[in-house]
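Exercise: predict the fold of this chain.
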Amino acid sequence: MDRKNFRRYILCALSFLASANVSIAITSEDKDLAQARLLYQNAATDEAIALCVKKIAGGKNLPQWHEMYAKSLNLRRNGPATAATEIKKAMEGSPKDENIIATAGFIMSGVSPSAASAVVPKLKEAIKSHPKNGRLHGALSDCFDAMQDSHADQELLTAIQLDPLDYDVNFQAIEHYSKLANADEVNKAYDRLIKGNPKSAFAWAERGVYRRDNYKFEQSAQDLQKAVELNPKYSYAYSMLAKALKKGLKHSEAIKVYNSMLASGGPNANLLGRRANCYRQTKQLDKAIKDYDQSINIYGKGSAFVPQKANDSMSKDQRLDYNKYWLERVECREQLGQIDQGINELTAYIGGALHPDSAYDIRQRLYRRKGQYDKALSDLNYMIKKEAFVGERYTDRAEVLAKLGRVAESKEDLKHAENIETTGSP
């Protein structure tokens, strides 16, 4: 081989090796991005964010990693505002990348109408260069929705036609058609989403919750079960699965889900209360009371009823659960014949709750079981004074008055109950 051909051979070999190294690097980077994308779609948000931060710190393929970081941040509460900063960095690093521009549209649409409007020119410019990119049309539809622009519908139809299985396009379709109360198109969008992204725990969970909200409890449970299989750490999907099973009256199966959640996460007031309710529904009353006790003690930091005040020590949701579980525990005691303890707990509740009407109703029932008709009458008088158009209360009071020998008044209350049934008024 002469020197000229030898040099050509060496240059070709070096060129091949360089290309191979670049290919290997790109493939490795693509695998990392694919892993981040899988974490993101599996609702493993913290893990996805950690991987993005690590890669950004390493300085490799920065625009794509800033894009992935933005998408992951967008899943968090108040996410769009923080995600906006990262997607801007991605666009600065790769201003002509059509997929980064599309992601910017999907994110900015959730920030504000003005932020959505600002990215529209970039989307339109990108569409001119890449008219067959469905994500661009989907992102433009999302921005138009934020701006209340009627062109959103046509852009979405184009997006679906071009990329019918795309993750972001179908979430935009779900949001768009949900606002229009078009259940048929929402269902189609969910089906396409699952077909295109069968390994996305987030997609399965979202459809499961949607089906639960539409009273399709069996289908909902199946979807949510798939979500937790894909991501065993997906606590939200576990919680929604238990709720779907409860709504479908599969309380024993729901108990198993709550057992798993409590075993992995430790004592939790809300979960204990929900499991207690399932025990109550399956007549496992001793177990129910034990769970109610734990839940109440966690919420109230003790067993005594915590009075409700304007500046309550609990959040609104915690207070609702606390009060609800307190009364449900009393109803368990009633079924077990623990009448005195139930009355004591109701009296504490009435003394501290802002709206104790339900407690009065249960307490008058327990007083009647004990034969304490004068006390039952006092509670019924209070209830009728508060709401005079409930026939059952007059019937109950008629029974109590009869037990007290006040027959004429008892007959009068029965007439009131009959009048309410026929005319709506006592």
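Check your answer against the key: The mean pLDDT is 92.
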